[in-house]
Amino acid sequence: KAKCYDHLKGYVKQSNKGVLFVSNNMKKVLEVATRVVVIDNGVIIFNSENIYEALTFYINNCLGPNLDERTRKIKLEKIRAYEMQI
C-alpha cells in the first residue's frame, strides 16, 4: 500500500496527468489530492484546489448531519493538525 500511495503522489504532481481518487480517508486525501470535488447524488456541490477548505466543507455539510458535535470537532482538528505538519 505504501508503495502504491508513494507512486500515486508522484504521479499526480506530473503535468498533464489526472487521477480520480475516491476515498473517505481524510488523511489519504490530504496526502494525495491536489483538488477535491464533493459530489452528492451525482451533483457537484463543492470543487476546490484548497484541500483543507474542501474537507472542512465535506465534514460540515456532508458528514455533519450524521456526526455528533464532538466527533465533528475531532475530525476538523485532525485536518488542521495535518495542515500544521506540512
How would you describe this protein?
The protein has 86 residues and is of the alpha+beta class. Helices cover 56% and strands 13% of the residues. It is built from four helices and two strands, in the order H-H-E-E-H-H. A two-stranded antiparallel ribbon has the order 1-2. A hairpin with a 2-residue loop joins strand 1 and strand 2. Helix 3 packs antiparallel against helix 4. The longest helix has 17 residues. It starts with a helix and ends with a helix. 8% of the residues are buried. The model has no long low-confidence stretch (mean pLDDT 85).
Fold topology:
Elements: H1 2-12, H2 26-32, E1 36-40, E2 43-48, H3 51-63, H4 69-85
Antiparallel strand pairs: 1-2
Question: Short description, anyone?
Answer:
With 86 residues, the chain is an alpha+beta fold.
Biggest sheet overview: 2 strands, antiparallel
Number of DSSP E strands: 2
What form results from the Cα inertia axes?
A: globular
Order of helices and strands: HHEEHH
Low-confidence stretches: none
For the biggest β-sheet, the strand order reads: 1-2
N-to-C terminal Cα separation, in Å? Answer: 22 Å
Q: What count of helical segments does DSSP give?
A: 4
Rg result: 14 Å
Strand content: 5-15%
Assign a percent range to the helix content.
Answer: 55-70%
Give the rounded overall mean pLDDT: 85
Structural class: alpha+beta
